[in-house]
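Why this split exists: single-chain examples teach little about how molecules sit against one another. For that reason, every record in the complexes split bundles all components of an assembly together and asks for one structure covering all of them. Below is a record exactly as it appears in the raw files.
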Amino acid sequence: MDIETIYENQKALITGGLGFIGSNLARKLLDLGAEVTIYDNADPESGANLFNLEGIRHRVKVIEADIQDEARLTEAVQGQKYLFNLAGEMSHIGSMQDPFKDLNVNAVGQLKLLEVCRMTNPGINIVFAGTRQVYGRPTYLPVDEKHLLTPLDNNGVSKRAGEMYHIVYNRVHDMATCVLRMTNTYGPRMRIRDARLTFIGWWFHRLLRGRPIQIFGDGSQIRDFNHVDDVVDALLRCASNALAHGKIYNLGAEPISLLHLAQLLIDVHGSGRYEVVPFPEGRKRIDIGDYYGDYSLIKKEVGWQPHVSLRHGLKTMLEYYYQHKEHYL
Ligand SMILES: NC(=O)c1ccc[n+]([C@@H]2O[C@H](COP(=O)([O-])OP(=O)(O)OC[C@H]3O[C@@H](n4cnc5c(N)ncnc54)[C@H](O)[C@@H]3O)[C@@H](O)[C@H]2O)c1
């Protein structure tokens, strides 16, 4: 399966396409010759940002609507060959503050979308953006797909429902669905305005403002980080590979401690400092501790593995934000 040619002249729908990962995917799909439609409600609490489409706005169709709007979904899904399903509430802390919003987007909305696909376009190829948050606090490392699922926050629970709906629609309705359990993703076009979505976005915010990076806890926590280009590659490989249907795959990368990540970021930036601070109220209880994923299954079955080094990825991300910071800070 050659992803360099398979998307040419094909219709692809991206839910959540105004956001971080979706907008990077839209660019890549356009490069590959696809016809791209974005479905997004431009949620101001999310990473949605019109500037993410800078330079490609005239080449994509944008449907501004909610994932729970069945009439608009029906219009969007018809005639599409691929559906990259990235619309989601991804704030862990937000899911504890507003649990029903999180549930409605990540579970109810996903079920509505799948029902619309089943009724109007059952042959569509779907990849769902799942999350490693469904595992909760790991009992062993690296975490493989067989690890027990004990999410620690509402977001992990709702995302688990969302991924299982996709798997059920494969098993019961023979639909072509696949779930990627993504880990921390970084790169250009992510929300860095505040600490609502990702800590790495918040680190960039502080660095760009000349403030010290804040490490919550003691910095020894281990995580893995995928550059968005690698995540886009995984999405494209899975959508177009029949072997991936009905499967759940971890993404992942080499593990690194937060302290080392902060040091690397400062080194790449050429200046800056970090401070170790206590977890903000509410965060400690939902922190998953150490995590890194075993991605050998997707490597074996789909041929995916990460290629972008952290050093290079952080460098190009910094360059992007220095150039466009007025649109993100
Ligand atoms: N970024 C990460 O590190 C990461 C890690 C694991 C999983 N994920 C998953 O990947 C997906 C994309 O993440 P992202 O980082 O690009 O987030 P993002 O917030 O930048 O993008 C999400 C997009 O979904 C849209 N959206 C939210 N609610 C919607 C609704 N009700 N109807 C229509 N659109 C809606 C938002 O407007 C936004 O543009 C999410 O589902 C997230 O759970 C991301």
